[in-house]
Specification:
The chain is α/β, with parallel strands linked by helices. The protein has four helices and four strands, in the order E-H-H-E-E-H-E-H.
Amino acid sequence: GATRTPAPTPTPRGPAPIRGAADFHIVILADGLDESWFFETARAYYERFRPVVSGRVDVIDLIPFTRSLAVTVIATAEQVEALRNYFVDVYPNLWFDPITATTREEVAAVFDTRAQNGLRFG
């Protein structure tokens, strides 16, 4: 009889589960927010933690399944919930750290507090 070659096991999409600290940290700016929402509000945070900053969610696909990822998202309240649901479905292993964008001053206060207290995530 004919031999059957087993189908290859598909590689899972997105990052691996976090064990201890995440291998990578990305700050994602949701649609409608430009880079100034981070770079004008989070200078001390950026200097301390040096995350990758992107305006694109699909940058997560560049993280191999062998590495873990934490994502800080700056977004409106409505976008935070939509992104939370999306990440749970598509990238269940990543650490989701939302910051609700209401005003630049409020976002700056969150990042300043984190930087002063040595907290990468809220």
